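Hi U.,

Before I forget, here's the chain from the pilot set. I'm dumping it here mostly so it's searchable later in email.
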Amino acid sequence: MALLSFPSRLESLAAADPDRPAVTCAGTTLTRRELQSASTRLARELGELGVEQGDFVTVAVPNSVEWFVSYVACWMLGAVPQPTSAKLPPRELAAIVELAGSKVVVGAPDASVGLLPTGTKTLPLGHQPDPALSDEPLSDRTSPAWKAPTSGGSTGRPKLIVSGDPAVYDTDAALPLQLEPDGALLMPGPLYHNGPGVWACQALLAGNHVVLLVRFDAEAALAAIEEHSCDVVYMVPTMMKRISRLDDDVRLGFDLSSLRIVWHLAEPCPQWLKQEWIDWLGPERILELYAGTEAQAVTIITGTEWLEHRGSVGRVTSGEMKVCDENGAELPTGGQGEVWMRSTRDTPTYEYVGADAKTLDGGWESLGDMGWFDADGYLYLGDRVADMILCGGANIYPAEVENALNEHPQVHSCAVIGLPHDERGNDVHAIVQADPALTPTADLLAFLAERLATYKLPRTIEFVDNALRDDAGKVRRSALRAERIS
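Structure:
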């Protein structure tokens, strides 16, 4: 086993082929050497702002070459990059920074500066380090955790999911995620989400050219595959639907001969949609992965396997899984219950900051999914145990939206549910009991926009006269949802 720190791995790639493209976004490309140079200058600046080994640095930067410069700069200092959306409301960003104890926020909007914890340093979006700073390599350091993404959590409060893996690269190990040396990855998803961040970083470390979209566009995604000869692409089913809905003369007009693998994950994929992609590109190109950010266990299924096990998300490829009833007793084959996971590693795969795991005796943990196994060991997922809303591949927790609603002085009670949507999977629907003066929906949405990221805002608001919680403060979201669907 030959282990290198992430900075050393990237330096070795730059030394081997300095002019090979490393990252491309919106018409800007950084070569391997240019990425190293820019990251080293930013690392020196972050060091001058007090960042040391093991510190968290919040990266609130949209998809761009600068996102990678920020990440690599953190690794060069042995710091832990902590990604967030660049569009978070200032109060939500401040809460995450406080939880992380970040020394610096890269990409901090002006409106957030006064809300951040005292002593937090900021670099604005678009900041460029002083070109006079040296780009000579820094002393080699290893981040104790290579990433620390956030999640709203089922409680509606933010939490950090700190990776249990240090920023160390094994040069003797097989490349992950079906990547090949000197390949090219198209990443159309937002890098602050765990899946896109993992795929993009692993591709960079594998020596791949990472091609980013600023935001997803169906035709632009296909054009990027053709232009850069991408061999691997990351998708969520919402993206796949939008590509499928392109006119055939557009969709079939691009040269996708370079494409080997389409990964899809992060939300359930309708069987009809998956069949369309298998028919279009061939089953050997379509792979699906199921796991949480916590990565205790993983399932993978190829398109070929899926044709024999329609609707499955695959067999376990790392860790262990089992399905249990409400009492924690393991169910037999075909029995539907809660999916529990357990890592088989000697070291933890993650650590929560700001939350506790849902556990069973023996080291088993649950992400709140329901499912069952068939006789061949293939997992099928059902509804979520909790009421999390999956919208366009993003996880939205009703409690977080309800907390924001309840901040309004004229809101008496509320419940937030997901209603089915053909393209996005679900839309956020808010049911609100409030003073009559509040009924203009625009007024309430403006209030929520100060507290929630755009994708968490309700698409529809329904005003009711009755209280939505009982005397114990409980609400049956599943019943509310069923009533509205029927």
